[in-house]
Design goal:
disordered N terminus, 240 residues, 10-stranded mixed sheet, Pseudouridine synthase, alpha+beta
Length: 240
């Protein structure tokens, strides 16, 4: 069995819906018996998919891994706007969904290809004067947020099944997919919110090679560490 100071590397986890990223870190810390552990890029409780855990000396490259591009598949629902921009929030407005042709939907998605500024949602972990925005939102407060410069490298509309649309997007760090869904809904004239989200890739890491988060509590330490990528393996994977 590896001692704590020998657990260095990156552990790809497939997060389950309903868990916070902090939940995953806490379970892994307990099961692996290591204190030095972090994660790369928070996933909302609603979201599933790839969450990279950094262990030991792997925490030193956490910022580097977080800066890499991400790929998501998601579903938005037209006609309903929520305060959190996803299905975990409270519906704030309901509108009729117009008869939309595929070309209109494609144009709404294509509008955001490339560089643009995105306004982060109030329900987010971004801090204002040291206080997380979601805490202010719970108090019914809305504060001015700084738009973020983001980039969409590619998008794909997977299926249109009114009032829902399945899509794929490849984007830069700091991108909010629920805000993307919200803005597209506004552009289509009926509002929308995100109902499902799955991170499928982060940099060169793929969710297909990740350890299922819902098995963390029942798996042995050795079974989990079989999925651990050493720092030399991470370097080769990234082409560094």
């Amino acid at each position: 069995m590896r001692s704590d100071n020998l657990i260095d590397g990156v552990l790809p986890i497939d997060k389950a819906s309903g868990m916070t990223s902090h939940d995953v870190v806490a379970i892994a810390r307990r099961v692996l018996g290591t204190k030095k552990i972090g994660h790369c890029g928070t996933l909302d409780p609603l979201a599933t998919g790839l969450l990279l855990l950094t262990l030991g000396r792997g925490t030193k490259i956490q910022d580097l891994l977080m800066s890499e591009d991400k790929e998501y598949v998601g579903t938005l629902k037209l006609g309903e706007t929520t305060d959190s921009q996803d299905a975990d929030g409270v519906v704030t407005e309901t509108r009729d969904v117009p008869q939309l042709v595929p070309e209109q939907i494609e144009a709404a998605f294509a509008k955001y290809d490339g560089d643009f500024y995105q306004l982060p949602p109030m329900v987010s972990a971004i801090k204002k004067d040291g206080v997380a925005l979601y805490k202010l939102a719970r108090q019914g407060k809305t504060v001015e947020r700084e738009p973020r410069f983001v980039h969409i490298y590619a998008h794909q509309i997977l299926e249109i099944r009114p009032p829902q649309i399945d899509f794929r997007v490849v984007c830069s760090k700091g991108f909010y997919v629920r805000t993307y869904a919200h803005d597209i809904g506004n552009d289509l004239g009926c509002g929308a919110h995100l109902t499902a989200l799955r991170r499928t890739k982060s940099g060169r890491f793929d969710v297909d090679h990740a350890f299922p988060a819902d098995q963390l509590k029942t798996a042995t330490r050795e079974q989990i560490l079989e999925k651990l990528l050493t720092l030399p393996q991470v370097s080769r994977l990234r082409g560094a």
